[in-house]
């Protein structure tokens, strides 16, 4: 059994450790030099006793005041969880006990929420819980996959190795998500900027030209009349347009979060969009392969691993397919045969899986599949960005340039008459 394993859980229930608070202190050392800092403790008296043990005579010990702005800190991100996992693994490999490692991480973290989370987990471990049990109290930050891997690592006595693997996994998955977000949101943001600029022109700029055109005493071109009509509508009903746009976006987001049927419909439609759909296919395959490889390598039973992997694919179509694979594997089918039955994975993926199963190196083959499809996603996103840049320039030129031309057409017409 590894020395890094946490202490066995006591037979009788243990009261949860008291929450730690942050105190600011000031004192003098044995040479009379003024020392100050901040430290976590159960209470001020406990901190004074700890400082005296260190040879410091405390003069001031008071709770740290919280800033009005951002007192709670920013939300905890998956990358922060990845860094936390890497730090724990590194210190445990160096012989630092897990409780001590968590104390170091909590005191050095700049995000108060993350610091509080680590301290809570540390307190639970000190009270007798295993790391898996302590993390299970925070399912939002530590998902089912993370907890299952930790449980497998604790059972096998290789917790530090598993945590290091989890850190690498989360870093790769977050990098992949970043690529997908870039492919999805870059065009959307450009369209949003174009609409905002157009609205500003219609509300503030076009009316100025309209006043000038009234003195011409001649008929305006049809295109110019169209733009002026649109401007008059925006000036009169800008609040209605804003409410409709805002309401539509809010309704879309709420429907996606609360309606399972709507979310499933979006996932299916997303896979059918040209170019974007292929990127989403490759992303789901990469996440499936990497997640299954990590869980299988950590020693999680295959059926249980597939159940966890289903939710990590990021798309309901693949989630349903993986659950069907799990059901087939549970009754004795090889993974590659079960993958063929769902008819969604490319031939190369099923063949690589079959080779891995025959050679007893399923995790190694799945890692190779993941690397291949992650690279495919990278290449596709870069190609999409190159393709979109000229199209976006044309789009902006048509929208904004069209308005400018509409405003100057009467001036050109007047110059021709003169």
TrEMBL record:
Subcellular location: Cell inner membrane
Limits of the Type II secretion system protein GspF domain: 84-207, 288-410
A Pfam family: T2SSF
InterPro entries: GspF/PilC, T2SS_GspF/T4SS_PilC_CS, T2SS_GspF_dom, T2SS_GspF_sf
Keywords: Cell inner membrane, Cell membrane, Membrane, Transmembrane, Transmembrane helix, Transport
Main localization of the protein described in the UniProt heading: membrane
Transmembrane segments: 185-206, 236-255, 391-411
Membrane-related topology note: Multi-pass membrane protein
Family per similarity comment: Belongs to the GSP F family.
Protein name in UniProt: Type II secretion system F family protein
Protein source organism: Lysobacter panacisoli
């Amino acid at each position: 059994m590894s020395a890094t394993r946490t202490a066995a859980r006591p037979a009788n229930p243990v009261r949860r450790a008291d929450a730690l608070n942050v105190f600011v202190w000031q004192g003098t050392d044995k040479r009379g030099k003024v020392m100050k800092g901040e430290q976590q403790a159960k209470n001020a008296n406990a901190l004074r006793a700890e400082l005296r043990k260190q040879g410091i005579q405390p003069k001031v010990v008071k709770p740290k005041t919280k800033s009005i702005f951002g007192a709670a800190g920013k939300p905890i991100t998956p990358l922060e969880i990845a860094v936390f996992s890497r730090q724990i693994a590194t210190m445990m490999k160096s012989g630092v006990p897990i409780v001590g490692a968590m104390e170091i991480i909590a005191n050095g973290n700049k995000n108060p929420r993350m610091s509080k989370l680590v301290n809570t987990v540390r307190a639970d471990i000190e009270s007798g819980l295993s790391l898996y049990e302590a993390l299970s109290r925070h399912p939002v930050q530590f998902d089912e996959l993370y907890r299952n891997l930790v449980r497998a690592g604790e059972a096998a006595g290789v917790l530090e190795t598993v945590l290091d693997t989890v850190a690498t996994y989360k870093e790769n998955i977050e990098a992949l998500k970043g690529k997908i977000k870039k492919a999805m949101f870059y065009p959307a943001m450009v369209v949003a900027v174009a609409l905002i600029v157009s609205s500003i022109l219609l509300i503030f700029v076009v009316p100025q030209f309209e006043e000038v055109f009234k003195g011409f005493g001649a008929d305006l071109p049809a295109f110019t009349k169209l733009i002026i009509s649109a401007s008059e509508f925006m000036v009169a009903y800008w609040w209605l347009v804003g409410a409709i746009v805002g309401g539509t976006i809010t309704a879309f987001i709420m429907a996606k979060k609360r309606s399972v049927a709507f979310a499933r419909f979006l996932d299916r439609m997303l896979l059918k969009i040209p170019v974007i759909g292929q990127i989403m296919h490759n992303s789901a395959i990469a996440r499936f392969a990497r997640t299954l490889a990590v869980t299988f390598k950590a020693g999680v039973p295959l059926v249980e691993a597939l159940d966890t992997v289903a939710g990590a694919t990021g798309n309901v179509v693949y989630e349903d397919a993986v659950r069907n694979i799990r059901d087939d594997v549970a009754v004795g089918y090889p993974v590659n045969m079960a993958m063929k039955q769902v008819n969604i994975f490319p031939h190369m993926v099923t063949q690589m899986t079959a080779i891995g199963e025959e050679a007893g190196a399923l995790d190694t083959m799945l890692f190779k599949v993941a690397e291949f499809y992650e690279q495919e996603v990278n290449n596709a996103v870069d190609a999409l960005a190159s393709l979109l840049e000229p199209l976006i320039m044309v789009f902006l030129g048509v929208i904004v340039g069209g308005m400018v031309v509409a405003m100057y057409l009467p001036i050109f017409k007047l110059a021709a008459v003169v």
